Each structure stands twice: as structure tokens, then as C-alpha cells.
Amino acid sequence: MRILLWHVHGSWTDAFVRGRHEYLLPVLPEGGPWGLGRAGRNWPDTVREVDLATLDADAVDAVVLQRPEEISEVSQVLGRTPGVDLPAVFVEHNTPKGDFPFTRHPLADQNTIPLVHVTHFNRLAWDNGSAVSTVIEHGIPDPGQLYTGELPDLGVVVNEPVRRGRVTGTDLLPAFAEVAPLQVFGMKTEGLAAAAGIGTERLTPRGDLKTQELHRELARCRVYLHPMRWTSLGLSLLEAMHLGMPVVVLAATEAPRAVPPEAGAVSADIEELLRCARKLVANPEEARRRGVAAREAALARYGLGKFQDSWDGLLADLGRRPSARRRPDGQIPVSAQERKSA
């Protein structure tokens, strides 16, 4: 199938485009959220950058939507309506914001575009109304067991921890910094030590590293710390488990399902997490043993093959829907270029 999707969430897209289809990613000269394209990623040749404005509408077999605004964008530019004359599915990456647990999903109560949640917690948390919804859990391209744990540090991966504050558990970091030095990876980590009131000798912002470098550097830390309060399920946690790292995880949203106790610790009791972090930092062999368990659990539940098989099944069902090629008026869609010259 030829699948149209925007490059919105890099880590999820990294797994999705390694499937068995052809992937069409809109690109704009200025990039940005509506035209990021491949963004220099080392993706298969089946991932093609396209100019949506000139894309032949009939060259798209299905669209994977990730933002509500994409529905009108596709309809306007391609002349085909997602869920009507173009097979479509909507992927919900995020936990609901606002009046939880009463937050209604933007696609609630419609019956033309199925909703795919990336975690079971998300499906439970959103009010989907009568919309058809399912769960396809994350898949992670296996980076290999790179863990060395040579540094007695806690590794954290979080984007914008200063701005996001309690959402990302930034307020919890000072207590963990007393257990061991923190290495914090991710976008906009500059100024985090001052914002969190932690001495620079106890917190090192590492910035936004390329994926391979991130994995290599993170795997040198003794323990992975995941203090997020309200996130769908941080893919960095699953990546750390794939690396063979022991993990200390706040038991919020999907984390208790993703992390078995033998992988380290998962708890809402901060004192319990601090005790486990202290024990693992002081005991490299115990840390390594827990990391092996973490990797085994991640490979079993979040392996790339399982993810791709689940998506292949859903996409095949989309292709069998009666809406596939014609608009409600019976006309075959024309290309964007033909519409412009008409």
C-alpha cells in the first residue's frame, strides 16, 4: 500500500516506516510540522518525500492521520475525504489534556475513521464515544544490548523539562540527584539544573543527541530513571529497556503494564524508587541482572515485528473498506495538478 502520513512523532514514525509498504511523507522547503519529510533520517528507500500540493490523489491508498487538522488538509489538497473516499485511520499518541477523565476525543462518535491508541491507558483515558477504537502498542527497532553501566549515574531522557515541569516529573529530580549524578538527554535541557535547584556537579544536560549516539551514551549510565507523571508511554523508556538498562519508573499511566518488577522498580512511592535507585547504583551486578530482565520484557511486548504485524492487519482491513477509490458523487478523484489546471 502507498500510505500518506506526516512526520509528527519521530520515534513512532521510525518504527512505522520500517514496515512492508510505501510511505509518502509531505515535505516543505521550510520543514516544520507540516513538511518535515524524512528530516535526514536513515530510513528505507520505501520512504518517499512528496509535495502534497502536486501529489496525484489517486496515488494514495490510505492515510494515517495524527492530528485532527490533517483531515481537512487532505480533503482540501487531494480532493479525497479521509474515511469517505480515502481509507483512513487516526493514531492517538497522547494522553488527554484538560478535564480528565471527561475529555472527549476530537474524533469521538464518528464511524468512518477508526481510532488507534498507542497504549491501553490512552484508550481507557479518552472518551472515544461510539467511535471504533483499538490499541496497537509501540514497536521499537532493536538497538541491541549496548548497556555497560560503567558510570554510577542516573540517565534521564526528557524533552523540554523546564517548560513542562510537573508533567515530566522535573520537580522529582532533586531527590534523585542526591542518590547519584543525573545525565539528562533531550531537547531544551539547558538551564535545567538552575530551574530544578540542583548543583551543576549533580546534573549534566546532554542535549538532543542523534539516536545512535543517544543510545551509546545513555547505556553507559548505571540506571535509567523515568519520572514522567503524565505521558502516553515514553519511548525512551522502552528504548532503555531494549538497551538492557535497569529502570526506575514512576508508576503512572501505562508504565505499570510496560515494566515488570524484576526490571528494576515501578512504583508511585518515591521513597521506594529512591531506595531502588540507590541499591542499583551501588551494585553493578544487580543492575546488570535487572537490565537483562528489562530487555527480555521489552523484546517480548514491544518488538518491531509484533508492531508491524498488527499494523499490517489493520491496514489490510482498511483496504477492504468500500470507500476506497471513489467520492460520494461517483467521480474518480483527479490529481492536484489537474485540478489546478482545470
Descriptors for this entry?
single chain; 342 residues; alpha/beta; Rossmann fold; 2 domains; 6-stranded parallel beta sheet; 13 strands; disordered C terminus
Structure overview:
- With 342 residues, the protein is an alpha/beta fold.
- The protein folds into 2 domains: 2-139 and 305-341, Rossmann fold; 151-302, Glycogen Phosphorylase B (Rossmann fold, 3-Layer(aba) Sandwich), CATH 3.40.50.
- Helices cover 33% and strands 17% of the residues.
- It contains 13 helices and 13 strands.
- The protein has helices at residues 10-16, 69-78, 120-125, 161-164, 173-179, 192-196, 211-218, 235-243, 255-258, 270-282, 284-302, 304-319, 336-341, and strands at 2-4, 22-26, 47-50, 62-65, 88-92, 115-117, 133-135, 151-157, 182-185, 203-207, 221-226, 247-250, 264-267.
- The strands form 2 sheets. It has a 7-stranded parallel sheet. The protein has a 6-stranded parallel sheet with strand order 10-9-8-11-12-13, with helices on both faces.
- Strand 6, helix 3 (120-125) and strand 7 form a beta-alpha-beta unit.
- It is elongated, with a radius of gyration of 22 Å.
- The model is unreliable at 324-342 (pLDDT under 50).
Q: In DSSP terms, counting alpha (H) and pi (I) runs of 4 or more, how many helices?
A: 13
Distance between the termini: 29 Å
Radius of gyration: 22 Å
**Total domain count:** 2
CATH fold annotation of the largest domain = Rossmann fold
Largest sheet: 7 strands, parallel
Any chance you could write out the topology, listing elements then pairs?
Blueprint: E1 2-4, H1 10-16, E2 22-26, E3 47-50, E4 62-65, H2 69-78, E5 88-92, E6 115-117, H3 120-125, E7 133-135, E8 151-157, H4 161-164, H5 173-179, E9 182-185, H6 192-196, E10 203-207, H7 211-218, E11 221-226, H8 235-243, E12 247-250, H9 255-258, E13 264-267, H10 270-282, H11 284-302, H12 304-319, H13 336-341
Helix pairs in contact: 8-11, 10-11
